[in-house]
Amino acid sequence: MDLLRSEPMQLVQLIIPIEAAHRSISYLGDLGLVQFKDLNADKSPFQRTYATQIKRCGEMARTLRLFKEQMIKAGVSPSMQNTRNSVIDLDHLEVKLKELEADLLENKANNEKLQHTYNELVEYKLVLEKVGEFFSSAQNSAVAQQREHDVQTTVKGSIDSPLLLEQETTAFSAKQVKLGFISGLVPREKSIPFERILFRATRGNVFMKQAVIDKPVLDPISGEKVDKNVFVVFYSGERVKSKILKICDAFGANRYPFSDDLGKQFQMIREVSGKLSELKTTIDVGLLHWSTLLQSIGHQYEQWSLLLRREKAVYHTLNMLSFNVTRKCLLAEGWCPVFATSQIQKVLQRATRDCNSQVGAIFQILQTKESPPTYFYTNKFTSSFQEIVDAYGVAKYQEANPGVYTIITFPFLFAVMFGDWGHGICILLASLYLIIREKKYSSQKLGDIMQMAFGGRYVIAMMAIFSIYTGFIYNEFFSVPFAIFAPSAYACRDPSCRDASTTGLIKVRNTYPFGLDPVWHGTRSELPFLNSLKMKMSILLGVCQMNLGIILSYFNAKYFGSSIDVWHQFVPQMIFLNSLFGYLSLIIIVKWFTGSQADLYHVMIYMFLSPTDDLGENQLFVGQKFLQLGLLLSALVAVPWMLLPKPFLLKKQHEERHQGQSYSLVHSTDDPIESGPHSPHGHEGFEFSEVFVHQLIHTIEFVLGAVSNTASYLRLWALSLAHSELSSVFYDKVLLMAWEFNNTVILIVGVIVFICATVGVLLLMETLSAFLHALRLHWVEFQNKFYVGDGYKFAPFSFALLSDEDEL
User: Coiled-coil annotation: which residues (predicted)?
Assistant: First the structure.
């Protein structure tokens, strides 16, 4: 299993007996190394063989979703208890789910009816209490008024009182009409409009009394807690009564009967209280049964859900197979790795034995010109780096995989821009925390940003390790240098030179053994020195990586047996790139070793403008002028070398390949199948103009890209400088400035601001920025030299790829 090139794939055909089909596909799903082709693409989902079984699975999935909704409402979480203790068949599961659903729905309906009755009785009790209090207070008030009236009549009455007054009183009592009344509850927010509408509809011929209920009550209809008021409306006449009833219905007011007889009131209150007590007990028992039922479902929910997802996936795969009615077998075609041949054969044999089938499954390899899928065998470390490459494009079958080199080059280029071993340690600790707790986080649902960070935890760890390495080279720990490996090689000649410039420094020891000498920090020549160093280093790294990309194009051409690409693409590209920028890298290294003062800008510019002029003081070595002339001529020759030969050679190769194929046997023309478009004698036409234009575009792209891509690597210098300067600003202008005030409060505030700025800007924003720039360097500058990326991923049928988020 090689990560440099994708696994060798083969197209296979499986002939499976109908009785062993389900078990065979299920075992292949456990193996997860076969990608099936859909042989029924012209059929709709309802016309396929196993549409009925998929419909059954859909119905069972609906039942499981119902169970999950009820468990969420009840606060019951699915557990993995008894998941592997029992094996259940799909038919038994269907029967069991139907029974449980019927039991659950019946229990739910009964509970809802009981709860509805209970809520009505609670409201009825409140009406009895509140309206009873109103009637009691009104009756007491009437009795007091009657007594007062009787006393006044006794005191004022005499034998001289006229008899006519007694007759009027008797006549008035006879004319009194008994009023009717309606009582109930109305939502508090509707009580004022309710009263207003009653007054207007009856033209004021009603008397309404309301009482506020302190606590919210459960509404019998909606089942939600609502603030309500108890009301009683007195009226006269049937027409007024009908209007009041309609208004009550419109405002959602629940009406309840009430008796003005005190004895009947107490009797009704006792009856309602007794019924409430009985209903409460019954509801509690029903809820206990409902909770017990949901808990029993929760213990097996994960097992049932997994089984249903597996069965549904198996039947979907079976629907991709061709059904042979005559031979009573299923025909399957698909891709699999070559190394999995023996494993697949063993799985098919085991499925045949387990089903007691008389006929075994047939496994045979098919020859095809179809491009196979791309399959790289990765682990949890290499998969995240492979995803970086696949995000640009999936590798063509068997072409060189840049993911192998990305494991090293990606974090290294990131670290060149991010180099600070203090910041690197912080990122490393964060990535190690994710790696240590990966078992816990892998089974949890994380947010989008957290999921991305967790998925790339090994990439982040590698970036942090390389950042620590480049931080030691730059000698920066939160922008502060340390003499870790040895004392500085330089010292001041006298105290006046300290922190001013490097003019007064003299070399008193051996050169600092690793990285940048700490004495450079804070001097006036620090920035020009670091600019020159990092800019030249960026060019060297860029030329090296681009050369690696071109070398990989050679290995691709060699592997696919394309000598044209070797001699007319790889060779001229190497000559052109290294004649210009390879030479630039050479003179940079020579200047470092010799300590020359030559101006490299001048050398490269006048190499093109005046190649025959003397170099003068810019000459780095003997024979440099003639070498430049030779390299310039080589670069000029390489351009037509890339452009012209390849299209003509491809045309010649095409003519030789199809020479004589236009002739055919006389009798072959009578066969409509052989004379069709798929005839072996037919071939595609060769468009020379199309090939030439494509090669012209490719040549122009490479020539211009050689310049622009080299300049693009200068982002390594720019971002490294920006990161260093930002870190230095936060340290000097925040932390040290707060320290100089000699105030504890200011120091604490300064430390907090420094930490927030470091984490927010340098550890988050700068990390993301450097990551994106490193990504661009790999996708554009590196991969476009050799990577085609027009393949498609190997997507095997595997139960391991079924996640909890897959739709049931």
Answer: 90-117
